[in-house]
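Recap for those who missed Tuesday's class. We walked through two folding examples back to back. For each one, the amino acid string is listed first and its predicted structure tokens come directly after. Nothing is annotated here on purpose, so try labeling regions yourself before you check the end of the notes.
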Amino acid sequence: MTACSSTEESATTNEVPSPQPEEPSAKASISLNPSYFVKENLAKEITQESCTLSDGTKSSCYVITIKPDPQEHQMGPWCPTNEKDGKEKGGIWFRSGEVYDVDGAFIAGLADFYSDSAWKLVNDDGSIRVTNTQEAFEAAAKPDVDPRYNNYCVEGRPEWVTINAKTYVIPVTPVYQTTPTDLGRDGIGVAFNGVNFDPPAPLNAILAAHTIAPLDDNGGHINPHTGYHYHAATGQTKEIAQTDNHAPMIGYALDGFAIYAQLDKDQQEPTGLDDSRGHSDSTRGYHYHAGAPGSNQIIQSFRGLTASLGTETSNDSKAPGPDNRPPRRGPDFAAAAQKLGVSESQLREALGSPENSPPQPGQRPPKPDLAAAAQKLGVTEQQLAEALGRPPNPPGR
């Protein structure tokens, strides 16, 4: 693994969207610009397709399929391997809004850092316990950490990522809503290099097991199922500079509203941000500003409607089953996989529903063991059930 600082300067441009008059009632905003995405990271051309917004209305969306690794910078490092290692051998960690270099001394001092003597990641010979196999990483990175890997520095390596690409469905024209909605599990947005911005890292689960899962200097680390992703915006990716004093644009949220850096050209944070970390101006309309790198929060909620492509069932699939009841509609595996941050093949394998063995017309799809599938995927049964659009325990069972 090499040093985590970018090998190139962050790409910038002097482009700025054409000014629009502010419309407070509609919270007008600029539309997504596909040309901003780094072409080398696209798995295929960006397309515009019909989609369904989260309120059920039909709309038009960009479908953006991205390769799993960034082209702008190298990934890692994350965990030092010896208490004498310098900061160039590790990434960063955060607490109470502050960012800390994860060098060997930082790992050795975690008991004092957290005022908890149970922290002991350093062996007697000075080596640091690091998840250096894929099996160890997956066991330590689960929401319920395998007790064998308590007191470990948790590090996923790029060669262990199994997904080939990730697809984002983003409204062409964002639709503002007065009431914010929760971020969910399927990411909050995407940087121009295609790496997804993720919701806050689950600090309670990580720290409860006396583990630490550092970010690299770019603000990212690896998840067993979703691959490399950012929990912090640290200025290491492509930015779209603004012609005024405003902070540069760094990506888009899944609801289509643009995300800008935390600070403007004078290193000042904007005032008047709402609870989602957004506000509106006459040039950019409604938009978000990323949180400080040490805040574990890029944006706090969605102010726009998110979208999905969805699938239509054939007429045959709507035929009544042997008991003269309408058959259960099969789940949208692609949409569910996107929500859970796994590949469709991983989801189908966990549920025992191979893609080449769909139910016959008029048959009801087999009922999967959600508890077992959730354990395989490293998610909770409730999260899996919600992604599939069904209750974890059907009524009457």
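Example two. Treat it independently of the first, because the proteins are unrelated.
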Amino acid sequence: MIVDLRSDTVTRPTPAMREAIARAEVGDDVFGDDPTVNALQERVAALFGKEAALFVSSGTQGNLCALMSHCQRGDEVLVGQLAHSYRYEGGGAAVLGSVQPQPLPQQGDGTLRLEDIAAAIKPDDEHFARTRLLALENTWNGKVLAQAYLDAASDLAHARGLATHLDGARLFNAIVASGAEPARLVRGFDSVSVCFSKGLGAPVGSVLVGPREFIARARRVRKALGGGLRQAGLLAAAALYALDHHVERLTEDHALARRLADGLASIPGITVTAPDTNIVFAEVAGGRAEALLAHLKQHGVLATGLIGLRFVTHLDVDAAGVDRAIAATREFMTRH
């Protein structure tokens, strides 16, 4: 059996989630009358203390709807150089929204220095793009951004007339790891996107939350992007099931990530970054990472090496799978 540690996006719906999908009451969400979608939107908006919510097909679409709703053509968003919405979403804001990203250097914990944020805000002058938005990400590479930092960054942005957006693709991991109240954690953000197809194990879907007027604009953007769905209640039902059954269990993923990190760190030649949540990064001495990935694959263990050797735990991985990954890594490092 394959131990798939490439990402928490590889999870498959559990039998109980499949039953919830099969039982879902549906309508036409473009007309706004899919009851299951509406129930999900209302629940997620209330959970995060926002007025309204919009179900979208992916985290990328949610972020793009947000950026294009906050910004007009020629406006600018301040974003981390390594943020997902800047680096890994096809340049959508620039390509489709004519929104200029201003990437800023990120610290090791994923934060942007407040001084860098302040310095990057352009004066009101025709020579410059109009700085309109600050976009942050939590978690970032599995790291949980501190509440004090989130408050300080959003306060700075608002004081300078900027809106704020939080890419919360793995926000539930941050909530569980920090013990924070969801609404308190995102209080400083005008909009937040949260994903259900990662650690929560749903097959498809994210939700964008924010003020009612903002969500109305985002709904128009979603339609223009081809994201108007019909009987989307089938997908929303999976997300609702995940909210009921897959949030608290994220602690199991975090514990398995620590188990994996501890095991890998005990192997000579492997340097591991201690995980906050469910993502483990490792460095392999001697330039052997690519060979190690190939060895792991031969032994039925999958990982990625795109941004350093990365392992992600999730609901389809158990302790035996983690131990198998550690053992295969140890075997390779001993022989090579």
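Answers for example two:
The first strand starts at residue 3 and ends at 4.
The mean pLDDT is 96.
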